[in-house]
Fold this protein.
Amino acid sequence: MRIGIFGGSFNPVHNGHIHLARAAAEEFGLEKIYLVPSRISPHRSSDEYVSGEDRLAMLRMAAENDPLFEVSDYELNSDRVSYSIYTIEHFRGKHPQDELYLLVGSDMLLSFDKWYRFGDILSEATLCVVSRNQGDMKLLKKKAAELSRFGDVLVSESSPVIISSTEIRKKIAKNKNFACYLNENVVQYIRSKGLYSYRGDAGLLFDPDEKKKYLKANLSAKRYVHSLNVAAECRKLAEKYGEDPDKAYFAGLLHDICKELPDADQKELVLNSGFTVCREEIETRSLWHAIAGAYFIKTKFGVEDIDILNAVRFHTVGRAGMSRLEEIVYLGDLISADRDYKDVDRMRKLSYSDLNSAMLEAFAFSIKSVVKKGGLVPVCTAEGYNFYTRLVREEKNSVNPKRGLK
Ligand SMILES: [Fe+2]
Ligand SMILES: [Fe+2]
């Protein structure tokens, strides 16, 4: 029988590991693969490195239901230094008649001749190398040829999976979406034990992937593209003005979520929301979607962040004293890549050079277009206009105090 031995820190085990092992099994005809988590030196940072017990548990979850795999705690429980030759000797003892294959990533092959007793490893086992970087095949084959005088070295032809545990750990620590890289039980395990500084589900509410699916299914193509553009613009503005880019992206993405609901549904959401809504808003159909949208994401998506709710709620009408995130979504909607009104380029420049002046311009623009159409100006819009007028005036005065005395 051909038996593979695949060691690593598996911190945590991810889909790339499993793919690599399965690909090697298929290519080299392996009937069984031992997954062998290594011991990790305790001096490493505790946030990044979890206990052997946890790594073993995750590995067992990722490998269960696949008879190809068996998880071994040999290295974790061994009191010797974890040299690969000892691991090979251990499995040789268990399988005296079988052929052993040691699976390693391409980075390891390049330094393989520095490994402790590497010649003995090659006389006991065939080395199977799986590429971890696109385009390193030539180098791998050259190295394999050099080592072949000590034993068999096989280089896998399967394409590399570019995922690394390091990147996954970073995503977890930053509360970015990491579920797609891991077995779902491993995801649950990390969440429930708070591994790798996982900070709870709140952060994952800013995970836009699921929301994009909803928008794509429920909005016209044009509105969906607009939503993506506004989200991207909000991220850029957030980076410029020190707001959380993920949060801004998320709020921008959802700002028009109710825009294409039937009027009656929008109105019902507005009336049920319990938000303070002025008379002019109730009387202006095109403003309902903002109020409805805030209420919708609160009730349907469980968004509780008041800043995000207000950013969606006020993206049409604005108000005095908007938060930075509210301003970002308000402007992001106005200058997104799909906008092509006459002054849009000037507005874009102003938004990135002078936030308060851009807000003032945006309010003036909004009021002018309402007046032009014979519409009603909501009180909060008028208050917003006055607020930013004063703010810009005060700013000018503080830069050049004499101007205020004229
Ligand atoms: Fe809108
Ligand atoms: Fe919009």
